[in-house]
Design goal:
Helices cover 39% and strands 18% of the residues. Strand 3, helix 4 and strand 4 form a beta-alpha-beta unit. Bound molecules: S-adenosylmethionine.
Length: 277
């Protein structure tokens, strides 16, 4: 595959392909940036990579050189011819033309053998949160997630309680994953050029199984607590055993008038475990 903005544009034009804003299509055209992402992701021949949104395949082509297999989900079916041409030499790549958020990934994984699974993706900002939440809530066996996202989205990943960026995503992520920034990426390496720069972040799975007694209760509690961010816990959790929750909050000198955004991960775990007993 050849990497240059000109070559990419020529190929897209020859297939009469128009980049689609509604799918967040900004394609990377800088080979050095792609090589750096691949190097920092530490992928090897025991790794099955799931790529969400291969686009024209610039990242996919390089992933195929280092990984055992690459399983891609692409929502835009009109990319099929372009991907077929660009990935014609990559026998270890499978592309499923469907919305990743609706995919039955666990079933799709059954035909693969692997020692570890990494998700690698250059994501449109509006689906970053639902994708990470899907990975966690569907209990997909993902060891590491490496995502390129707009700088502002990246800030939310490490947000602390009480800040405006703190939400269900921050609780999930910091409970399950070690969050690390890998590199900055200039807006100039994409076509079309977006209005903001990006960063590449990695999430490496932590061994946290013992802390939460019942994950389903924990997930539901987080979802419901942040349901309406400006509402108090009492209002968001009407159907819960509020006496039990109040008992836990007392230990932290808090009551039911608190908002979810003020609660640390430890307090959420404590409440979820009290509700599980
Ligand atoms: N990976 C390519 C690259 O880096 O050049 C393309 C990245 S582009 C920012 C995002 C890609 O995700 C697009 O190809 C878009 O069609 C695809 N996409 C958007 N929403 C998706 C979804 N829900 N499921 C699967 N793919 C999606």
């Amino acid at each position: 595959m050849e990497y240059s903005p000109k070559k990419m544009q020529e190929h897209l034009d020859s297939e009469s392909f128009h980049l689609k804003k509604q799918f967040g299509q900004n394609f990377i055209v800088d080979e050095n940036i792609i090589d750096s992402i691949i190097r920092k992701a530490l992928i090897d021949k025991d790794t099955l990579v799931i790529e969400i949104g291969p686009g024209a395949g610039s990242l996919t082509y390089k992933l195929a050189q280092v990984a055992q297999n690459v399983l891609c989900y692409e929502i835009d079916t009109t990319l099929e011819n372009i991907l077929k041409t660009n990935l014609k030499d990559c026998s270890n790549v499978e592309v499923k033309y469907q919305d990743f958020l609706k995919a039955d990934v666990l079933t799709d994984l059954k035909k693969y053998t692997y020692k570890k699974i990494y998700v690698v993706a250059n994501l449109p900002y509006y689906i970053t949160t639902p994708i990470i939440i899907k990975i966690i809530e569907d209990k997909l066996p993902i060891d590491k997630i490496v995502v390129m996202v707009q700088k502002e989205v990246g800030d939310r990943f490490k947000a602390k309680p009480g800040t405006k960026d703190y939400g269900s995503l921050s609780v999930y992520l910091n409970y399950y994953y070690e969050v690390q920034k890998l590199m900055d990426v200039s807006r100039n390496v994409f076509i079309p050029k977006p209005n903001v720069d990006s960063i590449v972040v990695s999430f490496t799975r932590k061994d946290t199984q013992d802390k939460v007694l019942n994950e389903d209760i924990f997930f539901k509690l987080i979802r419901d607590s942040f349901n309406q961010k400006r509402k108090t816990l009492k209002n968001n959790l009407r159907d819960y055993d509020l006496d039990c929750i109040e008992e836990v909050l007392k230990k932290y000198h808090l009551d039911l008038s608190v908002r979810a955004e003020a609660l640390s991960i430890e307090i959420f775990i404590d409440i979820a475990n009290a509700l599980s007993r």
